[in-house]
Design brief:
Layout: H1 3-23, H2 29-40, E1 46-52, H3 57-71, H4 76-83, E2 87-92, H5 103-112, H6 134-140, E3 145-152, H7 156-159, H8 171-180, E4 185-189, H9 196-204, E5 208-210, H10 213-218, E6 227-230, H11 239-243, H12 246-251, H13 255-269, E7 274-280, H14 282-289, H15 292-316, E8 319-324, E9 328-329, E10 333-334, H16 353-358, H17 367-374, H18 379-390, H19 396-402, H20 407-418, E11 420-421, E12 427-428, E13 432-437, E14 447-449, H21 453-461
Parallel strand pairs: 1-7, 1-8, 2-14, 3-4, 3-7, 4-6, 5-6
Antiparallel strand pairs: 2-13, 8-13, 9-12, 10-11
Helix pairs in contact: 3-15, 13-15, 14-15, 18-19
């Protein structure tokens, strides 16, 4: 062995010895320093709790792949992991009666601190009595709550922080409870669940009412008025459809724009503390539909909201930013694709994957939109319609399978082209991602049950 090789080997062994002493087998130094950094900053005055509803690691990965490959940059989420002292954890997502939760039970675990049965919101499964919601506790402390969502604002996830109902479908009742319980900021879809009479009650209580993007962008963020913004009858339109429709771009705000107004308004309303929940709800809906392109665009829109909230939190330095999901949905994954001879590539393991993934950029519309507008088509007109909106040309036999544009069937046909496939159209039961950045993030352990999260949030706000 040469002298230089010997020196190199001794240096490697010394470094390895030092690393073992410092890091240990299960407690990396980086994780320790991350928590120390957060602990030294004390506790936060404000919490932004962000939820990418229905997101598994496959959806998170595909958004990163898309930003990296098509835009030449990283997602805000992965950049946060790469550059900031972030505390990460895995979350077990069970409900009281199932290994696979629905969004109502999942949000109730956060908002009520207890696991409940699927389909219910903050109702004790044994006694059928209401559990104390986060809003009820915060109201006692004069701490305002804000809820932002791309679903109906009365949908399961936002409702889990403020409502008590035996069925998540009782959205008109949830809307009324928001008024009675004085949720200060409400921004999302769901106009149909707020009757004219209820809207008048909100107005009479001093709420500013917003109905479109123009009004949202024009309003003064620092005005000391609670706000109710309803930007669609039902769910807020999917991002992929908004991007294809100039009118929707004019009338419907993005999740990032709603979140930016929410933090400004809460700052104006609060003495010094507040809590905001921001939900990218429609990742879950794309999972149920097995809509790969729709899922990626929704996750990227959520990532844009992360960027906006991260910029706010960094500027203020008294904000705890939490980013997580309630459960997976659909089991989306990018699978390796072998190149075929007609692609002009030499045979090789998975070397057709990049070319296949590239095709996802040709999708212009969601399955939801295509199903609504093209369900009656068949034969060549259906083929032309699909090609126009996706760039995928189906053969005659495939067009028979695509008849009616049933999402599960058409997703399988598309998966042969772009390599993105699904395990089902249902929620999934994997452990999910959780991260916290800023003061108070050191309070979260590396593994939690979903109902344990609320206790740490309350500790962070100093109201536990």
């Amino acid at each position: 062995m040469s002298s230089s090789s010997s020196t190199s080997r001794r240096g490697f062994l010394k470094a390895a010895s030092i690393s073992t002493a410092l890091f240990g087998s299960s407690a990396p130094l980086l994780a320790q320093e991350t928590r120390k950094s957060a602990e030294n900053k004390g506790l936060p005055k404000k919490i932004i709790f962000m939820v990418s509803d229905g997101m598994n690691h496959g959806a998170l990965s595909l958004a990163q792949h898309s930003r990296s490959y098509f835009e030449g940059k990283q997602t805000h989420w992965t950049t946060l992991y790469r550059e900031r002292p972030v505390v990460r954890a895995l979350i077990e997502t069970f409900s009281a009666n199932s290994l696979v939760t629905d969004s109502a039970a999942a949000s109730s675990a956060w908002g009520g601190g207890k696991r409940v049965n699927n389909g219910t919101l903050n109702m004790d499964p044994a006694s059928s009595q209401p559990n104390e919601t986060l809003q009820a506790l915060l109201k006692k402390k004069d701490i305002p709550l804000g809820l932002v969502s791309t679903a109906t604002i009365t949908h399961a996830t936002p409702a889990g922080f403020a409502a008590n109902v035996s069925s998540r479908g009782e959205e008109p009742e949830i809307a009324a409870q928001y008024l009675d319980r004085e949720v200060q900021v409400l921004l999302g879809g769901g106009q149909k669940f707020f009757s004219p009479e209820l809207e008048k009650k909100f107005s009479d209580r001093g709420y500013e009412l917003l109905k479109d993007r123009k009004a949202l962008l024009a309003t003064k963020g620092d005005e000391k008025k609670p706000v109710l913004g309803l930007f669609s009858s039902g769910y807020v339109p999917l991002t992929i459809d908004r991007e294809a429709d100039a009118k929707l771009q004019e009338t419907v705000p993005t999740l990032a724009e709603m979140a930016e107004l929410a933090v400004k308004r809460l700052d104006a309303l609060a003495k010094d503390q507040w809590f905001l929940m921001v939900e990218g709800a429609r990742i879950d809906h794309c999972g149920h539909a097995n809509d790969a392109a729709g899922s990626i665009r929704e996750q990227i829109a959520f990532d844009d909201a992360i960027g906006a909230m991260l910029a706010y939190a960094t500027a203020k330095e008294d904000v705890l930013l939490v980013i997580t999901t309630d459960h997976g949905c659909g089991g989306i994954q990018l699978n390796g694709v072998n190149a075929s001879p007609d692609q002009g590539m030499a045979p090789g393991i998975y070397n057709g994957t990049t070319a296949a993934f590239k095709q996802i950029a040709n999708f212009k519309r969601s399955f939801e939109w295509m199903g609504n507008s093209g369900a009656k088509l068949s034969g060549p007109p259906l083929g032309d319609y699909i090609f126009e909106n996706t760039g995928v040309r189906l053969d005659g036999e495939e067009l028979k399978q695509a008849q009616g544009l049933k999402s599960g069937e058409i997703a399988k046909l598309f998966a042969k082209r772009h390599g993105i496939a699904w395990t089902s159209g249902n929620h999934t039961g994997e452990l999910v991602e959780f991260c916290a950045y800023g003061p108070g993030s050191h309070l979260f352990p590396g593994f939690m049950r979903n109902e344990e999260v609320r206790e740490h949030l309350l500790q962070a706000l100093g109201v536990a």
